[in-house]
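Re: that backbone. Tokens:
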């Protein structure tokens, strides 16, 4: 395994580790990044016009705190969401501290891999793979570009398209179980129709 592959796999396992740490309802899609931030009081998110720069993150060595800035003026919400997840990748993968000497390309690709796995967990992606793009984009609250990039990544790393051929085809009702809609249905004890 080369350095890039190693770091991509590490990024994916870090996102899985976070999924494992948050509550069950929080693991359902769409993932709410606030649910992760509330466990990390050392990260402050600032949303402002960055004049078309998606976002960035910084670490203060003295206070050991992070600031993540997101452009909330020039990009739509799904892109802002992916950008925030990407910047959280830099934080969780310690790109400002322990791993700051990694090369820039590997850092960026790893942060993307982290964001992809965080917002579009591989296991759920297999189950939604056969649904229409419109449904999928809404279910994960992601952009079409992010979804396409994610599929390409999964194909390269995990032979995604061949695996989904072997997966059981889930019904719409089955897939609901993996979404935050399911807790709403349970709360009101509604019949799924
Ligand atoms: Zn980055």
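Recovered sequence:
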């Amino acid at each position: 395994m080369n350095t890039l592959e190693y770091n991509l796999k590490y990024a994916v396992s870090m996102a899985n580790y976070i999924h494992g740490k948050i509550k069950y309802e929080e693991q359902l899609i769409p993932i709410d990044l606030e649910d992760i931030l509330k466990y990390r009081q050392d990260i402050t998110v600032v949303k402002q016009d960055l004049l078309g720069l998606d976002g960035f993150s910084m670490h203060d060595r003295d206070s050991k705190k992070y600031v993540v800035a997101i452009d909330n003026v020039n990009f739509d919400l799904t892109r802002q969401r992916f950008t925030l997840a990407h910047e959280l990748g830099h934080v969780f993968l310690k790109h400002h501290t322990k791993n700051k000497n990694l090369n820039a390309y590997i850092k960026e690709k790893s942060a993307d891999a982290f964001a992809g796995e965080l917002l579009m967990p591989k296991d759920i992606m297999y189950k939604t793979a056969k649904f229409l793009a419109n449904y999928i984009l809404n279910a994960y609250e992601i952009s079409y570009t992010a979804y396409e990039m994610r599929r390409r990544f999964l194909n390269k790393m995990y032979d995604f398209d061949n695996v989904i051929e072997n997966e059981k085809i889930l019904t719409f009702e089955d897939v609901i179980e993996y979404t935050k809609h399911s807790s709403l249905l349970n709360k009101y004890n509604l019949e799924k129709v």
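The chain is about 55% helix and 10% strand. The longest strand covers residues 65-71.
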